[in-house]
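Now for a chain:

_____
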Amino acid sequence: MKKILFVASECSPFVKTGGLADVIGSLPLALKQSNGADVRVILPLYDEVAESYSEEFQYVARFHVTLGWREQEVSLYSYEYKGVIYYFIENNYYFTRKGIYGYYDDGERFVFFSHAVMAALAKLDFVPDVLHAHDWQAGLVVALANIEQPIEGLKTVFTIHNIKYQGVMPHSTFSDFFNLSGEHFSGFEWNGMINCMKSALFHADKITTVSPSYAEEILDPYYSEGLHPLLHERLEDLSGILNGIDTKEYNPLTDPNLHITYRDSRVKKSINKAFLQEKLGLSVDESIPLYIMVTRLTEQKGLHLIKRILPEFLQHNVQFILLGTGEAEFEAFFAELPHIFPDQVRSLLSFNEELARQMYASADFFLMPSQFEPCGLAQLIALQYKTVPIVRETGGLRDTVVPFNSVSGEGNGFSFANYNAHDLLHVLYDSLDVYQDAIQWRRLIKNVNKQKFDWQHSAEEYSQLYATVTK
């Protein structure tokens, strides 16, 4: 039985800002169920986690961590949730703050976390075969494990969830934070800076990312954020494993947030649609196609394309609902849109999980025209709720959404390749044509109903990877 220690900066249900937390919250249990692996997770103990869960934590150990001239005390706790053991690194100076990212000293905070994980390994009643770190906040753990060899034969895997964020710090932090001799500097330096993600890519035994297409894309300078030369050097050790979703958590048959639950009944889905239309003051009319977006309002999500063409598309008899918050430019656009199209558009500039689920369950189409998307979970959730995705062919979107072919009847959604507003508009018109053709719409929905993106297949691929790396 393989023993795997996940190292990450966030994990659902404890603390979440994005898809990384969903992966860390679901994959360990899937690995345990798939092949009996003992997978545990180690995380920082943020203030909001302590407030919600600390009364149930078990004390493990207390020790000191040195960071250059600094010495900080660490308390280590454990907690079992759904059969998986989680360890939490407590330090009041670095982690007792509101929110988890966005501080001026984030680099220092996660260097400290990495050193603390190394020190914690000696305190655990658990000796991992593989240390699996996720994204830049945990990348230094891979480097330190390779250099310090805290456990004989310990192998390392590093997963890139989003290469855009790399944890870059001034080169002077190497001598200030790392307590390492100068011979190791080159394994951390990139373009004159200390780069946490680069350190992991340089030192890891195996490198993965969250979809096969993204593994190909990040070899290209357009997507790599400057790291493509190193990735080409590590090409034999790089692979893409598609994320899944927790199909128990996202299940329209049992979701308590829905007006009425369903498996794949279009009648019950239309009841949800009517409920949402009435709730938001839109015309209650099944014949009007309902398009939704549930998203962060950032450029990455293709919102410049949306700004360019959505007013034109809204000249047709369609409805559009947006849920999300983000950059001021996009919030302003979506705030104005319902005033221009009061009978068709609702912009909800907030985030509400109950309403998000109701939107997935009610919509006919889910719009996700991302500029880049390492994997994407929202399109998988949409498919789980039997809603047709419209995406750009990038990263995991390309791997999960097959464009509908009205001749062959194959496909589960709509997609376009070029990052171009009128290409998006073209597929929106295609989706409208299919919706209005009862025969084609039934063929498409039949395909959507067959989709399943749980964690089982992904867990099997990770298990094979662990077996390979520990040979």
About this structure: DSSP finds 19 helices and 18 strands in the chain. The CA atoms of residues 157 and 206 lie 5 Å apart. Residues 3-244+456-469 form a domain with the Rossmann fold fold (CATH 3.40.50.2000).
